[in-house]
Design a protein that fits this description.
Ankyrin repeat domain-containing protein 17; Serine Threonine Protein Phosphatase 5, Tetratricopeptide repeat; 29 helices; Ankyrin_rpt
Amino acid sequence: MGSRSLRRQPDPGGGSGTLRRFPMFTVPFKVLMKMTKVEAHEVLKERGELVEFKQSMGQAAFVSHQWVSVHHPDPEFKQMRVLQEALSHVLDDLTYIPLDSTSETAVPGAKPLHVKELRSQPLFFWYDYFSCPQLHINRHHLLNAIDSISEYVADSRFFLALCPTVVDTNGSRVLTRKTWLHRGWCRMEKACRELSEKESWIMIKSSRNIELKIIGGLAELVSVGEGSFSVDDDRTKITPVLLRAVRRKLFLLLERQDLVGYRVLLNQQPVLLRGLSQDYVAVLPSFQTDRELELNDTLLAVAEFLHENGFKGVSDRDRAGWSPMHYAALRGDPRLVRGLLESRADPNRVTKKASHRLVLPIWTPPLAICCAYKHHEAARLLLLARACATAPSLASPMYCAAAADDPEGVRALLDARCNIYQQNLAAVTAVEAAASYGSVAALQELEAQSTSELDTKHSLHMAMLHDGSAEIAKKLLDLRANLNDQSFDWCKRTAFVRLLCAMSQLQHRMGKVSQFSRQVYHAERATPLMFALLGSHYEGAEVLIAAGARLDLRNSRGWTAADFVRGQRVPDFLSRALKGPGPELVVHCGTSQPEPEHLDDGEGCDGYVEVYF
């Protein structure tokens, strides 16, 4: 079946609102901002503070979050206070919500979210403890509410991932952006958003660190079923919700004639649904072969694959610059990869354009795609077919395996004579990639396979810029990473990187501030601790301070580590770490150089200022 036939498939699901099995109860913005404690659905409903949301009323915002304790989502009002402060900061102080660094650098032309879009209509917030039955639970109503989550997400103009760094009520664990991404329910909600018509979402890491996510990055290419669930049976509850979202998105892409998006989602399903007892969703009629044409199982798989993807042959390329072999590598089906190789598909053919949906750059080979998604058997078939594991690329196979935290993939590539320190085209090694994505298992494999002490120079900077977790900080310190290193040089490594960083600095000076521009603006002579605090990676920052990170060092702008959190609410454990054993911390700015006056976001200083937490 060709691409024209693909475009004519109707969506039998209809609109999302008609599929709600339980009303979309929300709280108005004014009610949310006056709260001093998080109360259950039934309590708010009895007081008349819940509103059944309709599109004609305004705009809905879906709030995804982790529960701080087993029986209550936020007993000490820590997360909700951050949400209130973040909303006040956005609506009162900002013109736009900036892009996160991955979206800004990987998606040319991506735009930040103008705050006027939040102000344009009344806001209503969906939050599970408010919006779903909690007390004296009517199980039928609760299951219906759970089954309607994908519809709630689809009907929400905004999706807020509320994941500040907070300590749970027992003091036994720290909740962060990374633990939010690890939770199965949060993964499901995030997946529903990315499968909705709107796709983009807002991450709230602190009251001042708020970013717009257009794409998630390799670190967020996660399988919902492999997330953490308190109750294992919850996987059976979320499976139909996720499948319905996938099916609706496939039909939406066909309706829009977005065949590239359709092919990406169609073949990404084995990863998205990994860990769930369900095959991928197919929306086209079954492939019918000519009775006179006899095909073995392998060639039949290829014929079916070409049919459902709208390709005429194995050498085709679509307008995104991807061939059938690239989409087969994305799916990871060994039988399919073997059949394409038998049909003389080129195992070293690279993509001609970047895939923003998958955060894979131009010139990505099929082997790298397999490594990014942990498709081990398919990767081995490509290696046996002489796929080059060392060809220069931005997304080299070794970079992808390290970023995916896949020790088995790393080991297979090293057996294929890859070099641990081979740089990709952005001059990033596998060690630095593993550090950036918090890939502790991959880093351990690199250490085990290294014939000498692992070179971790600048890896701690990369880790605190991106992942920022305590685990990766501890691992790199165990590997003798330089705790107070001020020689970070990534911004100067290649001509392309120098140009990118120079343009970002210029935009920053002209008032176009983003997370990436702030990283570049402050990079020279910055320490890993400065990067951790700049990114609101407070758990990693505490590890560095406990290990002896110096608080008196200054970057080229004259900022100390404490300057990056001045005027912000931070967790008690970090407050204590920054204060040390002495009296309450007072920071002397001295010769500190604040950002240009028109860029001051509350972090500039003049003389002595008290740092409050």
